[in-house]
Amino acid sequence: MFTIVAIHEWGHFAAARSNGWRVSHIEFWLFGGAVVSDEHSTKPFKEQAHVILSGPIQHVWIAILLFLLQYFMGPHPLLSTALHYNGLVLLLNLLPIWPLDGGKLLFYVLTQLISFQKSLKVTLFLSLACILTALIVLLLEQRMTLSGLLLAGFLLLENGLEWKRRTFTFMRYLIYGARRDPGKLKVKYLSIDPNTPVRNVLKNVRANRRHFYILKRKPGLYIVDEQECLRMFIDQKKTSLRMEDLPQIL
């Protein structure tokens, strides 16, 4: 089990380093592990998908190797056990549960469809729903084991901690957004009330969109770039600004 998990995490680590990510360390959990990097939420979608899928893909060649050993050497309990655990680790990690690979992949996909803040909340909500559903099914079918109970407790704890960290995670993403090059992002125009606080507007920040906000002001309209909102909020620390204040400053 440990060998399979270690190879899985090596896949994540190799992909992260090949993309130039800063990796602090690799940690191991009950039936799993993680490559710890603060950059997982501030990278392009293709890089994120590459790093996440590089873990599960290791199980493919492990399975092929084990089947070849069985073919040439004949059946053996050790090979059967290894195949069982290889499939178990793969299926478990692909569940849409945070912080498993499936949960992170779900989060990355959602960031392409809705705002970053909503993506994190929806991911954690669906993750919690999956954990509770699995617990109920296992209890009703009387298939709950001590290891399963410990794993469920660990996943619930991780989801709770991530929920508490959600503001910090969002602020870190805003800092990234203020530094990124928005030139390659698709543009979307949104009409907004000039009295809206800038901090509320930044809840719309997305990974693949650059918003321009249309303010209805006399004698006409005024357009504010989302990057200017980020710059004022992050760099200038003007946290109490309203959207109508920006044209006066700029």
SSE blueprint:
Layout: H1 2-18, E1 25-29, E2 32-36, H2 45-53, H3 58-73, H4 77-93, H5 101-111, H6 116-140, H7 146-164, H8 166-179, E3 186-192, H9 198-201, E4 209-217, E5 220-225, H10 226-235, H11 246-249
Parallel strand pairs: 3-4
Antiparallel strand pairs: 1-2, 4-5
Helix pairs in contact: 1-2, 2-5, 3-4, 5-6, 6-7, 8-10
Number of helices: 11
Low-confidence stretches: none
Please write the string of helix (H) and strand (E) elements: HEEHHHHHHHEHEEHH
Strand content: 5-15%
Side by side, the strands of the main sheet go 3-4-5
Mean pLDDT, nearest integer?
Answer: 90
Structure description:
With 250 residues, this protein is α+β, with helices and mostly antiparallel strands. It contains eleven helices and five strands. The mean pLDDT is 90. 58% of the residues lie in helices and 13% in strands. The protein has helices at 2-18, 45-53, 58-73, 77-93, 101-111, 116-140, 146-164, 166-179, 198-201, 226-235, 246-249; strands spanning 25-29, 32-36, 186-192, 209-217, 220-225. It is elongated. Strand 3 (186-192), helix 9 and strand 4 (209-217) form a beta-alpha-beta unit. It has three domains: 1-93, no CATH class; 97-179, no CATH class; 180-249, CBS domain Like, CATH 3.90.1280. The protein has a three-stranded mixed beta sheet with strand order 3-4-5. It has a two-stranded antiparallel ribbon with strand order 1-2. It starts with a helix and ends with a helix.
